[in-house]
Each structure stands twice: as C-alpha cells, then as structure tokens.
Amino acid sequence: GVGSGKGKIAFLENKYNQFGTDTTKNVHWAGSDSKLTATELATYAADKEPGWGK
C-alpha cells in the first residue's frame, strides 16, 4: 500500500498517481484504515461533487 494519507488524497482529488504510478486513470474507490473527516467530506461535497457526483 501507499499509506492512508495518499489513499485519501487519491480518492478525494482523483489523483491516481498517489498510488505510486505515472498512469492517469480515474480513482473510483480507495481503501484506508483512516476514515474521512467531516472537513474532508464537506470540502469534497462543495468542490468536487457538482462535477463528479457522489
């Protein structure tokens, strides 16, 4: 794995390169032992959800 922080960044910002690859793909899900915080969820909802959906 790459660590919880990078997995969360990959998912929340759709940055596949956080998984340690130069491949550009969409991030559909990421596993983590660290749950998303209320702030992370609110930021995602405000900034990304309108264009990407839930």
Describe the structure.
The chain has one domain. It is flat and about 30 Å long. The chain contains 3 helices and no strands. The chain starts with a helix and ends with a helix. With 54 residues, it is mostly helical.
Summarize, please.
This protein has 54 residues and is an all-alpha fold. It contains 3 helices and no strands.
Largest sheet: none
Structural class estimated from helices and strands: mainly alpha
The rounded Rg comes to 11 Å
Average residue pLDDT: 85
Number of domain units: 1
Shape: flat
The parts where pLDDT drops under 50 for at least 5 residues are none
Q: In total, how many beta strands? A: 0
Our count of helices gives 3
Assign a percent range to the helix content: 40-55%
The SSE order reads HHH
Give the N-to-C terminal Cα separation.
Answer: 25 Å
**Share in β-strands:** under 5%
